[in-house]
Write a structure and sequence with these properties.
Distance between the termini: 110 Å
Largest sheet: 7 strands, antiparallel
Mean pLDDT: 84
Radius of gyration: 33 Å
Shape: flat
Number of strands: 16
């Protein structure tokens, strides 16, 4: 017959084993999930940041060539002169030449700049062509390519002219080797049109090393690296494979990677594949010149932290079980209560409730177990809070999103039912954003949204700012900001005027705003306050439209 002590020992040890299993399982599962998400976030964030860095470089090059193209078209006052008058062609070329050379000198990595006229107009070598004969040399004038020697179908030699003209838009050419200075280059070419007539093209040849150096400097984990491909998943830069190597031709799981690169499927997750019998994971994103930037690292390195954490959890749980067994034999009665507490805590965690607090009444190994258990829960709570924090942030602007706004609405609704809160709602709406998106593209519209958000956050820096729609923001004023709302609105208008004063014409921002204060006698819900603020905003928007219309009429007069 078993004694009461033996029964207690078996009972308590069973509870300890069950608790440890549940705690360990939940902890290991949660740790695995969090670390996997962190790994994907790290690699995708690094890929996005480096893609933005490369895109910024490409944008500067595009802006330089586009500016030269605008200048070239603006200075051309006679298309007929290009067709018939050699003297006019020479004078016009000389006028453009200094601007072209200056643009090339101020463009990072530029090795050549050229302006070529429509070969149907006059001489087949008309135009200008300045190039460096060495990477660190000065620009020198060369005789432009003789179009009469090549067919328009000869993409290798004259595709830089006919491809952008055929497509009717600026294009980035594929990288190619300049045999004269033994430098690999990439070209950006813009076609020129006047009255729907093809005048010619302007372009620059850029040292491909300026892009390759950025990609080559990218490191992730211990041995991870970055590479570039074109739209067809052919290698454009890789630390191991030569340019032109087809990823799909490498066979195995790389075919699926090539398909993703071609389809640009990217996202917040990582792609798994095997290369040279080594499991790897990949994150990638698209560059504005059509290339793909990929960042890859061995799966073993990515999962190293997760494996260490799991091993540590297993070791710690094993040690705790051994200590619990020893102390149960010696102090059965003393440890019953804390073990029950641990068991209850384990049940709460299994149900997803991490809001527990252990009392730690004993100063022995069981107390240490309870303390370590609490720390594990605290760490899990921090990870979950961190993940939840990401869910309440707007991805474009970084301010609070609509989910956070709805929770604030619930809080204020509760306050209106049980007390007399003091708060005000300010609604902001960016004017003309749809027209801006339709005219200049959504990327430009996103930049205006970010600029508008910065202005709002600069003025209302002590109050929460929420983005609740594409172009709509809400600020909740409480405490001191509530008391000084008029001053804040004046400061906002001043900040907006100051921004527009120094912004380019196409970068100026028009923001309508409306405000409403909570009034206990009339406002039954938060929605009543918001509705009045929204109506006030639309009234302000209407006034701004009338003012703009009056200004346009005055300008015409």
């Amino acid at each position: 017959m078993k004694s009461i002590q033996t029964k207690f020992i078996f009972l308590i040890l069973g509870c300890v084993l069950l608790s440890s299993t549940v705690i360990g399982g939940v902890g290991i599962f949660t740790a695995k999930t969090v670390v996997d998400e962190d790994s994907a976030r790290i690699m995708n964030l690094l890929c996005s940041e480096k893609a933005q860095e490369i895109n910024a470089l490409l944008s500067r090059i595009e802006q330089s060539v586009n500016t030269l193209a605008v200048y070239a078209v603006g200075e051309l006052d006679s298309v007929e002169g290009l067709r018939t008058d050699d003297a006019y062609i020479d004078a016009y070329t000389q006028k453009i030449q200094s601007v072209a050379i200056n643009a090339a000198n101020n463009t990072e990595g530029a090795l050549a700049v050229y302006l070529r006229f429509n070969p149907d107009f006059g001489k087949p070598t008309s135009g200008l062509f300045w190039s460096k004969t060495a990477q660190n040399g000065n620009f020198q004038e060369f005789v432009p390519t003789d179009f009469s020697r090549y067919s328009p179908e000869d993409v290798e030699r004259v595709g830089w002219y006919y491809l952008p003209v055929k497509k009717g838009k600026a294009i980035w050419m594929e990288p190619y080797q300049n045999q004269n200075i033994n430098v690999e280059m990439i070209s950006y070419v813009v076609p020129l049109y006047v009255d729907n007539v093809t005048v010619g093209v302007v372009g620059m040849d850029i040292n491909y090393d300026v892009i390759r150096e950025i990609v080559g400097s990218i490191r992730v984990y211990s041995s991870g690296y970055a590479f570039l491909t074109d739209k067809q998943a052919n290698i454009m830069y890789h630390p191991e494979f030569p340019i032109g190597t087809s990823i799909s031709g490498m066979g195995g799981s790389l075919r699926s990677v090539a398909d993703e690169l071609q389809n640009m499927g990217g996202g917040s997750y990582l792609f798994s594949y095997t290369m040279r019998d080594e499991a790897r994971k990949l994150a990638f994103c698209s560059l504005q010149n059509g290339m793909r930037l990929g960042i890859t690292a061995p799966t073993a390195e990515i999962d190293a932290a997760k494996n260490r954490m799991i091993l540590q959890c297993v070791i710690v749980l094993t040690v705790f079980l051994a200590l619990s067994a020893l102390l149960t034999v010696l102090m059965t009665r003393r440890i019953i209560r804390p073990l029950k507490e641990l068991n209850e805590a384990a049940k709460k965690i299994a149900e997803g409730d991490l809001s527990i607090a252990l009392t730690h009444q004993t100063k022995d190994e069981v107390g240490m177990l309870a303390d370590s258990f609490q720390q594990t829960v605290n760490h899990l709570q921090k990870y979950i809070n961190y993940i939840n924090g990401l869910a309440y942030r707007d991805g474009l602007t970084g301010v609070k999103n609509k989910t956070a706004y709805q929770e604030t609405v619930i809080r204020l609704e509760e306050q209106t039912r049980i007390g007399r809160p003091q708060f005000a709602v300010v609604v902001f709406d960016i004017n003309g954003l749809k027209e801006i998106n339709d005219t200049n593209g959504h990327d430009f519209g996103d930049m205006l949204i970010i600029d508008a958000c910065k202005i709002i956050c600069k003025v209302f820096k002590h109050s929460p700012v929420y983005r609740i729609g594409g172009d709509e923001f809400v600020v909740i004023l409480e405490d001191e900001d509530y008391q000084h709302y008029n001053e804040l609105l004046v400061r906002f208008q001043g900040a907006l005027n100051e921004f527009n004063q120094y912004a380019r014409p196409d970068g100026q921002i028009s923001i309508a705003r409306g405000i409403a204060l909570y009034e206990e006698e009339t406002d039954l819900t938060f929605g009543d306050v918001f509705k009045r603020a929204d109506e006030s905003m639309y009234q302000n928007k209407a006034i701004m439209k009338r003012q703009n219309a009056e200004v346009k009429v005055t300008d015409r007069v």
